Amino acid sequence: MGKEKTHINIVLIGHVDSGKSTTTGHLIYKCGGIDKRTTEKFEKEAAKMGKGSLKYAWVLDKLKVEHERGVTIDISLWKFETSKYYVTITDAPGHRDFIKNMITGTSQADCAILIVAAGVDKFEAGISKNGQTREHALLAYTLGMKQLIVGVNKMDSTEPPYSQKRYEEIVKEVSTYIKKIGYNPDTVAFVPISGWNGDNMQEPSACLGSRDGRSLVKMPMLVEPHCLKLWIASCHPLAQLTSLCDCPSRMSTKLVVSVQSLWAEWRLVFSNLAW
Length: 275
Known about the structure:
Elements: E1 6-14, H1 20-30, H2 36-48, H3 64-69, E2 76-81, E3 85-91, H4 99-106, E4 111-117, H5 122-127, H6 133-142, E5 147-153, H7 164-181, E6 189-192, H8 228-233, H9 238-241, E7 253-259, E8 262-268
Parallel strand pairs: 1-3, 1-4, 4-5, 5-6
Antiparallel strand pairs: 2-3, 7-8
């Protein structure tokens, strides 16, 4: 009997409309988590509402209000396999109104994938003070996400499409920021992708290759082509990094009760418990 695969939890975070749900849904499809018939069903349903581009997003966005508004409100989970791990992937909302849901999903993960949109003005909107790219990255680090992958999404919408110059500009600016909050940019994988077209999702894309034929996706000292699925497969679950028996208890608890028509909500993330 072969060695049983280890389980790893991954969360996708980032500014609203950066393409997190579409990227997650398309990756699940490419990994065999759903079949073509299901995606075609989502495509028809989305088209009826004038939102045909959300067919992959609807793999995870199940609420009626999410379909109507076209944004993720609550966290959604899905499981699939890589060559090394059983993966539970969590799609977190990017809108600032639902930041507490993002925190709930992130607190349970071993690794975070920060999605940034490369389209014209899209990256700038996310990285600005009013955007959520900075806040999500900071929250991820604060909640213990020491492993970070940055997915530079919507590369097909740059000017010109799949612009290496635009990609390098984004890598430089994001690297500068994540270094300030505690990450080492040299250990962070930057992956140029198109969540809609599927470029660099499961295998290296010809559209994102450099002039010598190599993929743009690489970390220092590595020049072989890689893609988002391969970077996920290179992550390490929290259980392999530390001895959980010696660590403080960590949990995410949410409870809503009604007391004389008043609503109270509490959440505990990171706490030392005494028995």
